[in-house]
Amino acid sequence: MLFQSDEGKEPLTVEIHTEVDVVEARQKGRMFSNCLGFSKLDQARIITTISELSRNIYKYATTGKIIMETIENQPEIGLKIIAIDKGPGIKNIQKALERGYTTSGGLGVGLSGVKKLMDEFTISSQEDHGVNIEVIKWKKRNK
Questions:
Q1: How many other C-beta atoms can be found within 10 angstroms of the C-beta atom of residue 85?
Q2: Cα Rg of the chain, angstroms
Q3: In this predicted model, what pLDDT tens digit does every residue of 80-119 receive, in sequence order?
Q4: CA pair distance 132, 126, nearest whole angstrom
C-alpha cells in the first residue's frame, strides 16, 4: 500500500512555503485518499479541506506543514490531516469558526466549511505562536 513503510504506516508531510506547495499538498491528499479507498465525494471533501488548510498556512503564517496519516478505529479506517504553523495565531477561534467570518475579504467559508466537510475537527491556537488544526475523515472498511 502506498504511504506505508516497512515499520508500519508512515505519516506524509508536505511543508508549506509557496503556492506550489499548496498544489502539492492537494495532489498528495488526492493520492492518499484514493489509496485508502475513499469515495470520489469524500476525496473531494478531503482535497478541499487540505486546500483550505494549506492556503491558510501560506496566507496567514507564510510557513507550516500539512501532515496526513492513516488511523484505525475498528471497523473504520480514517485519514487524519494535521495543519501546523507558527504564525500569528487566531485571536478569536469561536469567531473564526462562524460561517461568513473573514479577515481577508473572502467568502468566509474557510474553517467553518472545513469543520462541516470532515467527521472530526479540533483546533488550538495561541496568539503569536501559531495554529494547530486536526481533522479526520472516516471510511467504513469493506467486508
A1: 25
A2: 15
A3: 999 999 999 988 888 888 877 666 655 446 899 999 999 9
A4: 9
Q: Specify the residue for cell string 482535497.
A: 47
Which of 143, 139, 110, 108 has the alpha carbon at shortest distance from 36?
Answer: 139
Evaluate whether 67 touches 82 at the Cβ level (below 8 Å). yes
What is the number of other CB atoms lying within 10 angstroms of the CB of residue 8?
A: 7
pTM tops 0.85, yes or no = yes
> Residue 120: what residue type?
E
- Sequence-distant (6+) residues with CB within 8 A of 75 are 140, 141
CA 87 to CA 84: how far, in whole Å?
9
Distances (CA, A) of 25 to 29, 81, 86, 105: 6, 11, 18, 24
Residues 6+ apart with CB under 8 A from 81: 29, 46, 49, 50, 53, 66, 67, 68, 118, 134, 135, 136, 137
All three cell numbers of 99, joined, read 460561517
The residue type of 134 is: E
